[in-house]
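Exercise 7. Predict the joint structure of the components listed below.
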Amino acid sequence: MTEPTTTTIWYPSDLGQRADGSPLYGYHHPDTAQVVVTGTEKQDGQQPAMALLGWLEPADSHHATPTASLLVQRAGAELRFSMQGQPCRGEAYSLEADLFSRHAGLLESSLLQDCSVIVCGCGSVGSLAALDLARSGVGRFLLIDPDLLAIENLCRHQCGLADVGRRKVAAVADRIRQINPRAQVQSHALPLEQLDPAVVASFAGGHTLMLACADSRRADRHAARLAAALHLPFLAIGLWERAFAGEIFYSHPGTPMPCYGCAFDGLSEGLTARPEPARFYSNETELEKLNFQPGIAIDISFVTQIGLKLAIDLLNLSNPQHVPRLLGHLSQFTLVCNSNDPRLGGERAEIFSHPLQVTTSVAVSYGPHRPPCRWSE
Ligand SMILES: [Zn+2]
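Solution:
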C-alpha cells in the first residue's frame, strides 16, 4: 500500500445496507490519510481503542454532524465519503473475500473459520499460537489463563504496554479480533483445573483442537485428560529451561495412539524433565510474586511455530484437500533444539547433535493406560 494524497476510507462492503444514522467506528490514521471503518458497533475493551469516526446518513439529512467527523452519505446506490467537509476516496473491503486472500491454494481458511481451538495458557506460547491460528483463519477460540499481563511479560508476549494490568485472555481476545473481527472468542481468567469441564464441553464442537501451552506439565496433563474425555485432538507445546529446546506432543482420537500420560510414563527421565515454574520473590515482598522463567522470544517462537504447523494439520484431519505440513513426518513426540550449547542447555543439551535440530525418531509407546487410552478414570 502506498501513501495516497487524498484521504482513503476503507469501509465494509455491506455498509450501504446498514441503518440510516448508524454511528461509524474504527481507526483514523491522519499521518497517512487512512481511515478504517470497522463497523457500526463499538467493540468494548478493544486496544488500541476504537474511535467514533462519524455517521452514516442520507444525503438530504439535517442530522447535526460535527465537521471534524467522517460523513458517509447515500447518493442513490452509491456512497459518498467526506472527512471534515473534504471529499474522500472510498475503498470497500470484504472480510470474507479479502482477509485470507493471500492463503489461496495454501490453506483453506474458509474451512478453518468453523474450526475451534481451546488455548490453555495465554503466555508467550499461547498468545503467539492464538494469533497465528487466527491469521490462518481459525474462527473460534476458548482462551483460558488466570494471569494478568505484567511488564516483564512484554519481551516475549504478543500484547503490549497498553495491555499491562489486563487479563491475558482479554488482551489476546482483542488481538484476535483485530486480525479477524468475525472470530468468536470466549475467555476465562481461571486455571483450567478450576474451570467447569462443562464449559469446555459445550464449547467443543465440530473440529476442535485442545492446545496445551501452560507453563507446567501438570497443567498440560490436565488438558490432555480433558481432551481424551471429549475425544478431541490434543497438542502440547512446551519449552525446556532457558528455552534452549522445546517439546511438542500430539495425539488424536481417530487413530489408536498412546496418550500424553502413556508418553510421559514411558519415556526416559532425560527426555521428560521439564521445569515446573520457578517462583521468586521480588524485593522480598510476598505480594510481588513473579512467575520467572528465563527464555527469549526468538527461541520460544521457533518451537511454537513448528507446533502450530501440526495444529493446522490436526484441525484439517478430515479435510481431504489439505496437504499436511508435518503430520506423518514428525513422530508423536518431537523435540526441537534451539541451541545444543551446554552453556544454555546444561547437560541435557548433549542429546542434540546440532542447533535447530528437530527430532523425528523419539518413539512413544503405550504406558499404563494402554489402548484405547481414554483416560476415563
Ligand atoms: Zn494412555
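Discussion. The domain at 103-351 is CATH 3.40.50.720 (Rossmann fold).
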